Amino acid sequence: MERYxxxxxxxxxxxxxxxxxxxxxxxxxxxxxxxxDIAYISGVRTNQLIGYGLVVGLNRTGDKAATVxxxxxxxxxLEKMGIRIDPTATKVNNVAAVMVIADLPPFARIGSKxxxxxxxxxxxxxxxxxxxxxxPLKGADGEVYAIAQxxxxxxxxxxxxxxxxxxxxxxxxxxVPNGVTIEREIGYEFVKTESVMIALKTPDFTNARKIxxxxxxxxxxxxxxxxxxxxxxxxxxxxxxxxxKFLSIVENIEIQPDTQAKIVVDEKTGTVVIGENVRISxxxxxxxxxxxxxxxxxxxxxxxxxxxxxxxxxxxxTKMRVEEEKGKFVVVDGGVTIKExxxxxxxxxxxxxxxIVILQTIKAAGALHAELEIL
Length: 375
Description:
The chain is α+β, with helices and mostly antiparallel strands.
């Protein structure tokens, strides 16, 4: 019985070892991406919808009487319900005029629900607690594709009195979750054709070629790249009756995308993002800061007691100190990787904002072989 238990334990151990070796030795490319992540089927996209509506039920935070279009819209709405009022005599501050926007997703069917974003266009203080009345949403062609209505969700608040006020986030913009009902569909005829077009989100000749090769490895001679942004894919004869399955296979094909050598700098926030393929030529970098400190200390000069014609004088006294860091040169060899570049800059002890200046200077010297984009 003991021999059986020992033999069974050894068997389990060997199985675990084989599993570990399989995981370790199996090649895994962490940089691979699916076609659906870097491209899309041409014609399959969202469509923007927009509409004008009213939000009611606000707690004295709506538009003021001077907002003419709000009172006019309210009067028009009440007139359609059989109530006629004078817009100029209407004074309500629990109503706000808003613009409503939504994105109509592809293949949305009649009755489907989507979200909408509501933004105040008057002088309302807050939309918190409001309810959006039925608002037709139109497309670029002027046709109504959806109706929006429902309570608002606002991620902020505003409150205050005569002498002080407090506000969190942006209370004049909110969302209506699942408050848009689709009333008109957009047809897509590409599934009935013998070919489809794949468009890259970021046109690139290398990536277009890689997508072409990736598709042809699965479906022989089914695609070819027309240019750096589009790939024409012919639907095989055995897949024409099931185009959805074909496109599902195509968009899940993995390739190794090529990235552009690029550095993006946001000077407002001090953010630096460096791409993978950034390379620099051999340069020597030195960076030092100058710190100037100025301190004002007024001194009071007061005359002695019983001095004739004495007057108190205030004499300014300025103290100034200048400190300059000793810069040291660091040689960065050509063809370094991103990690080596960052390590070299960190070795100088520079801050993020100083690094922005250094990158701009390296670019001006012609040693930075990448696009430097400043936001």
